[in-house]
Amino acid sequence: MGATIIERIIGAHAGRDVAPGDTVDVVIDARVARDFGGANVVKNIEDHGLVVDDTGKTYFTFDCNPGGSDQKYAANQQVCRGFARARGISIFDVNAGIGTHLAIDEGLVGPGGTIVSTDSHANILGAIGAFGQGMGDQDIASTWAHGKVWFNVPKSMRIFLDGTPAPTATPKDIVLACLRHFHASGLLGYAAEYYGEIVDSLSLDARITIASMATEMGGIITFFPPSGEIIEYCRAAGATSFTPAFADTDARYDTEVHVDIDGLVPLIARPGHPDDVVEVSEVAGRKIDSAFIGCCTNGRYSDMVAAAEILKDRKVAPGVVLKIVPATDAVWRRCLSEGIIGTFKSAGALVGNAGCAGCAAGQIGQNGPGEVTVSTGNRNYPGKQGKGEVYLASPASAAASAVAGQIATADSIPDQPAVFMPDLELADAKPSAAGGGEGTGGRPTVVKGRVWIVGKDDIDTDMIFHNRHLAITDIDEMGQHTFGNLPGWESFPSDVVTGDIVVVGSNFGCGSSRQQAVDCFTSLGVSLLIAESFGAIYERNAINAGMPIMAASLSDEGLKSGDEIEVDLTTGKVAVLATGKVLEGRRFSDVQMEIYQRGGLLAGE
């Protein structure tokens, strides 16, 4: 009996014929770890004393956070760089792009090959007829060490794409039609193969788009039998040692399914579920805040061209943000040389460095609460691409929606965009109280508490409240990060108690203007900050927040952490309760006292 594509590939890499349900060790041609998970792969290897089997087949790809803008990602990337440099492992660094695309474009694996990665969309390699799998850190570490890993041979399904889509339909619409048919688990446990008259005509970019969403249907992988054009592309990319795999004519499939795409029109997935797919016309006119074009599903050159054709000589609607991120640096540079980047910028789009973008937290393409986004991504689960509403659509529909200011298709862009209108009722309403609400007049002018002596000068705002936490706006969440970047004081939030007083050296709070560096102490219940001097902006921020601060030189007065002091804010007198010694500080000015008693500059407004 003949074999399916998955059985051919696994059998060739296991050294024997296989059947569904078999568990075999499979040799892996390309072994990849990303900046997401890569540091844990390194840790597993080092903790278990493992040695990399073949550094020539082992790679790092930094695609989740190409800017290294998150401190933890930056740290993980540097861990991976150090490990790679010491062992001669190749890195596709932050300037390269999405790892699964690079695996194809750089010839890391060819048709019939095998690849594993810490990327759940490694099965995108099915676009060229290769077997790709996303795996966890331990699996990848084991594969790096041994060059192979165990697999259960999955069942196979044959999918026929029947009919011819309408001219306005795109490859993204085809895969959305498949999602509408199979839903979130219709391919669960299957390796599927695509066939049909349209399949032979699909470009590499189109195959990548469709293959990239196998995961969203529960599939292990979806394959396209490699065409002659695909095979030549892979050879030109450098993948010379491969044997394309095709299903035998007598291969046995667990099931065969027909998906009707005849006359297919542009589709869109409604927020929360990639498989909640409807025609765009059903939700057309929904006002949007933003659009995103990119991701491993739609970041190829043809996707950029499709967007540029719509954006040329047009502008993004007022108040709408369009974010575009090419999949690889090669795509980015081609777009630059051919004027496509210029078209994007002229239209008012933000263009980011190549990478995964909105699928990774903190990257271009995330949205906020209440924000409505049309995205070309592959997932719109709640919280995946931010806290707003995310619709999934093609690059053409996303670009058209950005221009229209509302959900639209390329052939239904209105003459005038939808714009945000002022809420007249809100504009006429009396503003609610800000800051401290109605104020807290009668606040104590004498403060007593236990002191913490932080014997350091020039403690800047990053030491007090690091910039990686700047997105926090809830004051209740701020306290836990206080002094988190001040060596030796990381445990301060768990040790301090309400009413404690912090005593520091000179120039406290120098650096940035971040309010959180003041509010974090309020969050912890600290009753007073005493410093020899304060950074100018920090001092204003503290006074305006109603946070009691006082300038006093106490470093040479024998105070130690744990001592109790009593401070009169009106006179500046500081009494050490254990000794009765009275020290001098700067009393509150009239303005400072007035703001303090109100509970803040904006309290009672």
Key words describing this protein structure:
605 residues, alpha/beta, Aconitase, domain 3, Aconitase, domain 4, 3 domains, 7-stranded mixed beta sheet, 5-stranded parallel beta sheet, 28% helix
Summarize the structure.
The chain contains 19 helices and 25 strands.
Write a structural description.
28% of the residues lie in helices and 18% in strands. It has 605 residues and is of the alpha/beta class. It has three domains: 5-260, Aconitase, domain 3; 268-404, Aconitase, domain 3; 446-598, Aconitase, domain 4 (Alpha-Beta Barrel), CATH 3.20.19.10. The strands form six sheets. A seven-stranded mixed beta sheet has the order 22-21-20-19-23-24-25, covered by helices on one side. The chain has a five-stranded parallel beta sheet with strand order 4-3-2-5-6, with helices on both faces. Helix 2 crosses helix 3, helix 9 crosses helix 11 and helix 9 runs parallel beside helix 12. The protein is globular, with a radius of gyration of 30 Å. 51% of the residues are buried. Mean pLDDT is 93; it is low at 432-440.
